[in-house]
Specification:
- By secondary structure, the chain is mostly helical.
- Helix content is 65%, strand content 0%.
- It is built from nine helices and no strands.
- The two termini are 45 Å apart.
- 24% of the residues are buried.
Length: 253
């Protein structure tokens, strides 16, 4: 507070001191991981204290216009003691549809269904890496090549994996029978999870080349690593999305 007061006193012109103030922004220091933030944003949107533009602003994203300023409130929220409205004569009350319970969520069938596509995407990435690493090794330039190649290779890995990742995540969210509101939360989680997967892949490739031996590394990249990695990363994606599954199931129950 003393820093803020001194900044305000010494740097803000006297005529502006009634409308301009200095204040530390501490939100960045209080942020959790992206799963925790996603759960918070989802609860805020569904509970009515965050609009879509509020959330986009906190994520340093542009607003989407006036439609993003709307605040929603749950249908089952009303002041205590308010009588339920009876249906008009001849009006039939609809029974709520059955919704899955988040506790019943088993990602296994989704992993099995999407494993071939994810394995194929990894296989294409690894074939390129193996071919280029082998040529660099024959030239005696493996270390130099790896440093330059993997500095920018992440974008190519992302391009190969993003399709299967989005398809898998979309099928997981279809489990709850509803889209995630606001959509930016889902997009943000998928983008961050994809970035984590890409970073892990690049780091594992670099570490394998450094550990060697080269022949064993290339043999594994061409046979086995693609499926093994897909079997690791698909459960990771499912666990990343679990807070949204829980939140969506809870809001629809």
């Amino acid at each position: 507070k003393r820093w803020e007061a001194e900044i305000w006193r010494k740097l803000v012109p006297l005529p502006d001191q009634s409308v301009v103030f200095a204040e530390h922004t501490v939100e960045g220091l209080l942020q959790g991981n992206f799963e925790q933030q996603a759960a918070m944003f989802t609860a805020g949107k569904q509970g009515g204290w965050y609009s879509t533009n509020d959330i986009r602003g906190k994520l340093n994203m542009n607003t989407i216009g006036s439609e993003g300023d709307i605040y929603y409130e749950p249908l089952n929220m009303q002041p205590a003691g308010t009588e339920s409205k009876e249906p008009e004569p001849g009006q039939r009350m609809l029974e709520p549809p059955d919704r899955p319970d988040s506790r019943d969520f088993d990602p296994g069938p989704y992993i099995d269904a999407h494993l071939p596509a994810m394995t194929d995407a990894y296989g294409r990435v690894l074939r390129v890496e193996a071919e280029k690493a082998e040529r660099a090794g024959k030239r005696g330039e493996l270390d130099k090549w790896a440093t330059k190649f993997y500095a920018s290779h992440g974008e190519q890995v992302r391009g190969a994996l993003i399709g299967p990742i989005e398809a898998f995540c979309g099928s997981i969210m279809a489990h709850v029978g509803a889209s995630v509101e606001p959509p930016v939360v889902f997009e943000w989680i998928v983008a961050n999870a994809t970035a984590d997967i890409v970073e892990r892949h690049v780091a594992e490739s670099r570490a394998a080349l450094e550990a060697g031996p080269m022949a064993d590394v290339l043999a594994r990249w061409r046979n086995g690593r693609a499926e093994a990695t897909a079997r690791t990363e698909l459960p990771y994606l499912a666990d990343t999305l679990r807070p949204l599954v829980v939140g969506a199931c809870t809001s629809l129950s």
